[in-house]
Amino acid sequence: MTSVPLSTRPARECKPLFGWLFAVAVLAVIGVYIRAIYFTPLEALQGAAQKIFYLHLPAWLAAYIGVGITALMSIVYLWLHDERADRLAEASAEVALIFLTVGLTTGPLWGHAIWGTWWAWWDLRLTLTLFLWFVVAAYLILRGAAEDPAMRARYSAVLGILGALLIPFIHLSVYFSDARLHPMPVVLKPSAPSLPPEMLTTLLLAFGAFTLLCFALIRARYLLGERRDALAELEMERDL
Known about the structure:
Blueprint: H1 20-39, H2 53-80, H3 83-115, H4 124-145, H5 149-164, H6 166-172, H7 197-239
């Protein structure tokens, strides 16, 4: 069998990692934070520290999107054994871990300014979100440790699905115990968000910007995975 160099393969296999979607996402994020810093009013009690809100919550939304896509693609892989689904699950998990780290970093910064403490293990939401971080990290470690591709995809798929099951418990954790630092839902209240219109608009714009950024990073990581797998295939062909 004659190997085709990667550089001469069809152009669709050599798409740029960061295209127009990434550029739009970056500009959207910049625009949102110009609005948040200079044109969104300060919260009366929290002051400037409340501005972390516009980074903290959108980061968690992006993390949940990444974890959700990982779980969905893991189910697709277990059902169809499609390598593309496994590759997309891996890409989404890596991006999710980035946003989980952002959320777990900005949370204590905000909490220390408002609550006077960096961390409280008895706060169920804090503990569960840290557990989710470890589950996603374990997913990626497992992928690096397992050598057999089929076994790696199968075992990591199970872990990816289990990670997504934590998300509803994280969201509802404030209802499970009165001993908590996190308040009851402010944005996702059953009645209506208890935010002034200016703050709510900025937050919704931040949600949109981070969603775009999440998808742009997942796309870039997926294309990188395609190139990695293509190179591995070429190396195998040369060894035959």
